[in-house]
Design goal:
Layout: H1 2-9, H2 11-28, E1 33-34, E2 41-50, H3 56-71, E3 77-85, E4 88-95, H4 101-114, E5 127-132, E6 137-145, H5 149-165, E7 170-176, E8 181-187, H6 189-194, H7 199-208, E9 211-220, E10 223-231, H8 236-240, H9 254-257, E11 258-264, E12 269-273, E13 276-285, H10 291-311, E14 314-321, H11 322-352, H12 355-362, H13 364-378, E15 382-383, H14 385-414, H15 419-449, H16 453-478, H17 480-488, H18 498-523, H19 525-545, E16 558-564, H20 571-588, E17 592-600, E18 609-616, H21 626-636, E19 644-649, E20 664-670, H22 673-687, E21 693-698, E22 704-711, H23 713-719, H24 723-734, E23 738-744, E24 747-754, H25 757-761, E25 770-772, E26 778-780, E27 785-792, E28 796-799, E29 802-811, H26 816-830, E30 836-840, H27 842-861
Parallel strand pairs: 1-15, 8-24
Antiparallel strand pairs: 2-4, 2-5, 3-4, 3-28, 6-13, 6-14, 7-13, 8-11, 9-10, 12-13, 12-17, 16-18, 16-19, 17-18, 20-29, 20-30, 21-29, 22-27, 23-24, 25-26, 28-29
Length: 862
């Protein structure tokens, strides 16, 4: 072949070609990011709307429905799903994979801006985000100490959070368990009623008399002065002294009808480290940044802050850090890569019996691998499980071409030819075979890189990395290998060492046995074909018996216990239960060394749900696996009264997007929520009879206690009381909405207004609560409303603009491929014809991946 002949005649040319690739790869290696998975972008956009105090039914009709209606007409939508909770709606829009996530997010922003006036006036601005694996949480920080929660929150927010956010690569930092300063104006209904005032009068006074407005500018001579009207309050005393207009000649201040309290905001989340209350910071990295590098820099910054924080009585801990697992995983793969390369070289030496021939062929491994680092850096890939798997898989393939070339050159050399002649003729003779081998490998792995679907996104880096490494190995075998063989390879004089002579004796006997079998196979061709066909059939049958899995379980030395109390449980009760469970884990669970509790928080902020992050001892120090420890915990917490627990591994993929971690997810859709719930219960009961299905659950949550206030429209109209006045009065007294702000230096704090806690608890009595009629007269609220205690759903889920209940399950001792047929069979038997079902989560992804595995097999055969 021409390139081989040129390389033999021009050794410097051959050396420089490969050396250039190696140098580029060597300099690129330190610049490559390190992560667990490839930086994959899915076109999934989430819309989060917060409407404090609204029930799930109101969130569904007033928020989710109009958003879904305007978004539903967008092109390329794959699934449209929403979750409606108390005060929060999250809409998840998943597009087809060929849709740009950035463009989709911008289109949704534009559409929601167009319908903003149709949404309730009391909502917070909608938050629109795209799902991004690359910006997943990488670590959590816990701050604890014997300080008031308000002060601890201030330190976490102003000191630690600000320092961490400056680290290059940090995307965002979320604060959990903290309570910032807040000014509460606690209304006394009897007092405001006694002086002919309403709640709206007090709120209007707070808004109108706490202002700072620019008034333009004036010129005095040659100077220009800015004019500003400074009417802001700067202390709680100023708020208490605000005058309420409309009281005639009587001077009424806020302090006369309400108590102004400088306190902390209402607790809606909680965190604790090893039983001690803490304020948590969840750190997310920027997409594409180096997980290990970012985490190490954050830890370094915390170490520098620790001495300063200790003086204030604050202790800093890092309960979870994904970078340790990432680093350990990558290091393990790197070791496997090097060890595999060493074994490959040893095996070549055993077969060739020649150190020079082994060295020449073995150079293909480091040359190809190091050159591939340059390709990884240029393509913007990272050192992750997929690219490192590609390199590990390539180790045996990379040396194949060089072995074939060097063995044929070695054969020609043994025929008495000169080194240059043997190298040229040996390479030319075997060149097409080497090209065929390389082409067949590329024919398999290149299509893998361009597969569609979620699997294709993950395997894109894998397929291209393998293909590039194999292509470089072919280039090495046509340039560097024949050039070195022409200069270094000597005539074989037979094995000189005992090990080589022994291996030659063993291989000789194997060759003799093979020669006998080959003669008989050629002599009895029909029998040979029948045996081959039966072997193929048996192999296909056995494949169906092999257990299949999407991602094999890993011992990450950590797991999570998700727990849920009945709907309506308070935060204080959830904290109490979480503390008991976490203490039991630390004292009794095998291998558990520490625990980290989080309750509430996030967009949904459900105070009856929480997570216990259990950190285990090192795998080398225990004789049992993480899965065994999880099974022990699952059995221990299985029969708790009024506490639903699920034990799951730490989710390897984060970033949001509404993806659930359970491998089994069966969606059931229909118009009637009660009927959907009944069908889900039947499916759960049937799955519970099948061994291997654990943590069975459903997304429907009913029984949320609520106080339903029904307005008597006829009576309200007769008394001249607008419905809006009734609704705003009740909301102002209960919800604690922000009415104005208090500026203290550079910091701004919310000022809220509501009833005192004791009176909120007896709100149903409606004592001393009045609203103003259009005539100006005060009307007792009890005359126009009726209060009833009721129950309603605490969560309403929708998909494709239909109500939906999802059955969830984890697997223990059963593979995903084995579990899916059971789910499909039970669903077919239980679900009525007027309901729609489909698989989500790993079930959907697994079916897709299995199809691509068959495609890859077919390409390999071709």
């Amino acid at each position: 072949m021409k390139i081989a002949d040129i390389s033999i005649r021009r050794p410097v040319f051959a050396t420089m070609i490969i050396a250039a690739l190696v140098v580029v790869g060597a300099f690129s290696y330190p610049r490559i990011g390190v992560d667990l998975f490839p930086n994959v972008e899915f076109p999934v956009v989430t819309v989060t709307v917060v409407y404090p105090g609204a029930d799930p039914g109101s969130m569904e009709s007033e928020v989710a429905d109009p958003i879904e209606e305007t978004v539903n007409t967008m092109a390329g939508i794959k699934t449209l799903r929403s979750v409606n909770l108390e005060g929060v709606t999250q809409v998840f829009v998943e597009f087809e994979l060929d849709v740009s996530a950035d463009r989709a997010a911008q289109d949704i922003r534009d559409r929601i801006s167009a319908i903003r006036r149709d949404l309730p006036t009391g909502i917070d601005p909608p938050i629109i985000q795209k799902f991004d694996i690359g910006s997943s949480p990488i670590m959590s920080i816990a701050l604890s100490g014997n300080l008031p929660i308000r002060e601890l929150t201030r330190i976490a927010d102003d000191v630690v959070k600000q320092r961490v956010q400056r680290v290059t690569g940090v995307g965002s930092v979320e604060l959990l368990g903290g309570r910032e300063r807040e000014i509460h104006v606690l209304i006394n209904p009897a007092k405001i009623a006694g002086i002919n005032l309403t709640v709206e009068d007090v709120a209007n006074a707070l808004r109108a008399q706490n202002l700072e407005l620019p008034a333009g500018h004036i010129e005095i001579g040659k100077r220009e002065l800015t004019v500003k009207t400074k009417g802001e309050v700067t202390s709680t005393k100023d708020i208490a002294n605000i005058l309420i207009p409309g009281t005639g000649t009587t001077r009424v201040k806020i302090a006369d009808v309400a108590e102004v309290v400088d306190t902390a905001e209402e607790a809606r989340s909680y965190s604790a480290m090893n039983g001690k209350s803490a304020v948590a910071l969840v750190v997310r990295k920027q997409s594409g940044s180096n997980t290990v590098e970012v985490a190490n820099e954050v830890a370094h910054q915390l170490e520098e802050l620790s001495s300063r924080l200790k003086k204030k009585g604050v202790t800093v801990a890092i309960p979870s850090d994904t970078s340790t697992f990432v680093e350990r995983s990558i290091n393990d793969v790197q070791f496997d890569l090097l060890f595999g390369a060493l074994l490959a070289v040893v095996i070549i030496l055993v077969f060739l019996h020649d150190f020079r021939a082994t060295l020449i062929s073995a150079l293909a491994i480091p040359a190809s691998v190091i050159a591939t680092f340059g390709f990884i850096q240029v393509m913007g890939f990272t050192l992750n499980n997929m690219t490192m798997l590609a390199l590990s898989l390539s180790i045996g393939i990379l040396i194949d071409d060089a072995i074939v070339v060097i063995e044929n050159i070695h054969r020609h050399r043994s025929m008495g030819k000169s080194p240059v002649q043997a190298a040229g003729e040996g390479t030319g003779e075997i060149g097409l075979a080497v090209l065929a081998t390389t082409a067949s490998i590329l024919a398999v792995f290149l299509p893998v890189a361009f597969m569609k679907g979620i699997i294709g996104r993950f395997f894109f880096q894998f397929g291209l990395t393998v293909s590039f490494a194999v292509a470089v190995s072919a280039l090495v075998s046509f340039t560097l290998t024949p050039m070195l063989a022409s200069r270094l390879l000597k005539h074989a004089a037979g094995p000189r060492f005992f090990v080589f002579r022994f291996s030659e004796w063993v291989l000789g006997h194997i060759e003799a046995i093979y020669r006998v079998l080959l003669r008989r196979a050629l002599r009895h061709r029909l029998i040979t074909l029948i045996i081959a066909f039966l072997s193929l059939v048996a192999a296909v049958v056995l494949v169906t018996k092999v257990k299949t899995e999407f991602i094999p379980p890993e011992d990450r030395e950590e797991f999570q216990v998700n727990f849920e109390l009945p709907s309506g449980s308070s935060l204080s009760l959830t904290k109490e239960v979480a503390t008991i469970l976490a203490k039991d884990l630390r004292n009794n669970a095998p291998g558990v060394e520490s625990t980290f509790i989080t309750v509430g928080g996030g967009a949904q902020a459900q105070v009856n749900r929480g997570t216990i992050h259990a950190i285990m001892s090192d795998t080398k120090s225990r004789s049992f696996s993480q899965l065994q420890a999880m099974a022990w915990v699952r059995a221990r917490f299985a029969d708790l009264d009024n506490v639903l627990t699920t034990v799951v591994p730490v989710d390897a993929i984060g970033g949001g997007g509404g993806f659930r971690s359970q491998p089994i997810q069966l969606n059931i859709r229909g118009p009637n929520l009660d009927e959907l719930n009944a069908v889900a219960d039947k499916i759960i009961a049937e799955l519970d009879k099948v061994p291997g299905f654990v943590d069975l659950d459903k997304t429907y949550r009913g029984g949320k206690p609520e106080l339903a206030i029904h307005i008597n429209r006829d009576r309200a109209a007769a008394l001249g009381v607008p419905v809006s006045s009734i609704a705003t009065t009740i909301r102002a007294l209960i919800a604690g909405d922000k009415v104005t702000e208090l500026k203290d230096g550079l910091d701004i704090y919310d000022v809220t207004m509501q009833l005192p806690e004791a009176q909120r608890a007896t709100f149903a009595n409606l004592g001393n609560l009045k609203v103003r009629a259009i005539t100006g007269q005060l009307i007792d609220l009890a005359n126009v409303v009726t209060v009833k205690h009721d129950k309603g759903p605490s969560q309403i889920e929708r998909q494709a603009r239909q109500r939906q209940v999802t059955v969830l399950a984890n697997l223990d001792g059963i593979a995903l491929g084995e579990a899916l047929p059971h789910v499909e069979k039970i669903a077919a038997e239980v679900v009525p014809d007027d309901m729609v079902t489909d698989q989500a989560g790993m079930g959907e992804v697994f079916a897709e991946s299995f199809g691509y595995m068959l495609l890859a097999l077919a390409l390999a055969v071709i």
